[in-house]
Amino acid sequence: MSSRVAVLKGGRSLERGVSLSSAARVEDALERLGHDVIGVDVGVDLVARLRDTRPDAAFIALHGADGEDGTLQELLELVDIPYTGSGPGACARCWDKVVAKRALWDADVPTPAFHAFTQAAFRDLGAAEALSELDARLGFPLVVKPARGGSSLGIQQAATPDDVASALVAAFAYDTRVLLERHVDGRDLAVSVLDGQALPVIEAVPVGNGGYDFEARYEIGRTAFVCPADLPTEVAQHAQALALAAWKALGCRGFARVDLMQDAASGELLVLEANAVPGLTDTSLLPQAADAAGIAFDVLVGRLVELADVSRVAAR
Amino acid sequence: MPRPTTQHELERYAGLFAARTRVMTSSAMRDMMAVTARPEVISLAGGNPDLSTFPPGAFTAAMQRIGAEQLTTALQYGPTEGLAPVKACVAEVMAAEGMRVHDDDLLITTGGQQVIDLMCKTLIDPGDVVIAEAPTYPGAVPTFSTYEADVVQVELDDDGMRIDELEAVLARLDAEGRKPKFVYTVPTFQNPAGVTMSLQRRRRLVQIARERELLVLEDNPYGLLRYEGEPLPTLRSLDGGEYVVYLGTFSKILSAGLRLGWVAAPRPVLAKMNLGKQASDLCSSSLTQHFVAGFFAEGDWRRYVADLVGMYRRRRDTMLAALEEHLPPEATWTRPQGGLFVWATLPDYVDTTDLLALALRENVAFVPGRAAFLDGRGGTSMRLNFSGADEAAIREGVRRIGTVVGEQVALYSTLTGRPTRPARDPVAEPTAVVQLRRGGRRSA
User: Fold this and answer.
1) Which residues does A61 contact at the CB level (< 8 Å), separation at least 6?
2) What does the pLDDT average to over B195-206?
3) Which of A64, A284, B229, B318 is placed for a possible disulfide with B391 were both Cys, Cβ 3.0 to 4.6 Å?
4) Is A77 considered catalytic here?
5) Mind listing the pLDDT tens digit for each residue in B156-195?
């Protein structure tokens, strides 16, 4: 059924470029599907524009805090416009890696061991004294990440205890809370979930020589994606099962992407994080996974808009 | 009609890309730089000239004359090498820096940037060595990468490129049986470091080029923007134009939007560059070339540059004073005698790419030092521009940068238990601005 769809995009975050790129493809697909498409570069006039244009649904193609932390979803509920993807609660949980990992932990979904700190803990509670415990608890190397943020910015590896302070300074540039996580050496996997169905597993493989280093994982152009991943069936199924468990634990709906690692030493699968508003650019993982499952991009986009309607009906 | 699937779309395009596009990748830093264009951001990131004092009357007069007398040529293709009246303007500008040039040694280009591109296009096969300064002009980095040059960066200090290190690099390359194609340098008011190559080093560099039959690309956009000290001879004037390829531009002395620069090169090199330019864009804009010729004929370009020099000197002084006030004692920065940039280096635990994220939250932007290196170095430095913002904006922008640097310094101190050094006593320690030699203002 044709309807008027507002594609919410752009915004002020560091991921503005990715968002615009996702949105351009989504808008093309929606037009091919016969929808009346309104592109909205999200800014202070957002509510006014939504009131003026009265869309039947909003397609959220906005990355970074603006689109992913639940605020926008909350607002769309208030103005009563159905929207794609997860609700405010799941968005807020996925957006904050600390919250997400605690939820996974509580639901017995395996995730690498970690400790989280706020900047205030160091300033007011003398948390620096506790850093010496890290070696015993997490071991080295470990990974330091800002709690919130959708890109690789601020993510650093600390090879030794001496590297921790500068890695923390870097991570705190992006957020007031950071986590220190056990470094998992192994295969880098992603499972996208569409309406409660796990799509084929994708593996990120480093390109070129220089082997697999930490930076390569986060640098576009240095990673190739294999879909479906070359994994034994039972491992792939287990990864999909864990992704669904994470989806459930975090309360996602519509679509999401779950990132996992397979520990090279133990073979264990661990969930790193979930992304409630995954990218839809031509190099993004979710469209590739959908394609591998025989779901063409236009079909995927159409489905997400339908699900936006359904979830509202369900919510009522 | 069957709709292309995502995988098909991916393959359809990916299979078409040239191998060299592998190096043309997106980066987190570039994503961040996109955000600096927001209007509420005080940008100390660009290299923009100030155009607020450009005389509107002179602009209108030049354009009116074009409209009345030269419309058909101004709107037509021109010769690849550029229009003769513009070459005369170039000769005038080069003469102001003590150089003589013949029309046949010149090619008018689409900005100075095109010269770097044509130089690579003409000389670089994949894997060929280019020697550049460390740090080097950030805008040259993607050009070198596109042509798959192997860039070796040579340290610089307050006297410009370290020629002793250059010689060590050349010896090492000799041992590997590799000969660099050219040395790329911004000897005067270097971008990004702001430093100027000493006369002694200029002489030695030209001598090395001659001994080794090695080309030097002298990039000189800012030479006329000198705020103190005596002008130094350009590499080209020391060499006579045999091994030095000279890049000039109207961008900083007139307007960047004209997109007009030039190259003066040995004729065989120039002939190849001319062919390269034909393939790129046939010729540079005839309209803006006519404008430059008209402006030079009607207006007093020297007066305009002299006005810019006065304005930029005040802005530089403002920036240096603000840095003194707001950066922590561990920070260092250069004190340029001209040009557009200060290069500041922070304590080694501060990463300026990460710092930029914090700075953008305070609505201020700079160029993280990594942009000026091809090997991942530069992480603790930043380039600060003082030509594109007024004095109040510079003061406020540096204050905001100082605030976020201060936060990171305090955090590191908390994390490591090491106290930060006490703030400088401004009375006991004379500021750098006071130490700067005044006078020597160049009459342009």
Assistant:
1) A7, A8, A9, A19, A22, A23, A26, A67, A277, A280
2) 98
3) B318
4) no
5) 999 999 999 999 999 999 999 999 999 999 999 999 999 9
Task: Determine the length of chain B.
Answer: 444
Residues 6+ apart with CB under 8 A from A287: A280, A297, A300, B6
Give counts: helices (H), strands (E), chain B: 16, 14
Instruction: Say if the Cβ atoms of A282 and B6 lie within 8 Å.
Output: yes
Determine the longest span between alpha carbons in chain B, in angstroms. Answer: 79
Distance in Å, alpha carbon of A154 to nearest chain B alpha carbon: 6
Nearest to A14 among B31, B355, B408 (CB): B31
C-alpha dist (Å) from residue B255 to A20, A97, B264: 31, 48, 20
Whether residue B221 has a cis bond before it, omega within 30° of 0: no
Output B337 or B37, whichever has higher pLDDT: B337
Paired tokens of A40: 């909205």
pLDDT at A212: 42
Residue with tokens 């010689």: B167
Asked whether A239 and B44 are in contact (CB, 8 A), the reply is no
Environment class of A83 (CB within 10 Å of its CB; exposed 0-12, middle 13-18, buried 19+):
buried
List beta partners, residue A269. A262
Predicted confidence at residue B19, as pLDDT, reads 75
Q: Is B54 exposed, middle or buried (0-12, 13-18, 19+ CB in 10 A)?
A: middle
**Spatial distance between the Cα atoms of A61 and A278, rounded to a whole number of angstroms:** 8
The shortest CB-CB distance from B7 to any of A153, A171, A288 is to A288
Question: Residue B221 has which token pair?
Answer: 């956009």
d(CA A209, CA B194): 36
- For the CA atoms of B270, B274, B277, B283, the dihedral, rounded to the nearest 10 degrees, stands at 120
* Token pair listed for A198: 């796990």
Cα distance from N-terminal residue to C-terminal residue, chain A: 21
Contact A58, A38 (CB under 8 A): no
Q: Where are the alpha helices (DSSP H) in chain A?
A: 16-32, 46-53, 65-68, 71-78, 88-95, 97-106, 119-124, 134-137, 164-171, 233-250, 285-292, 297-315
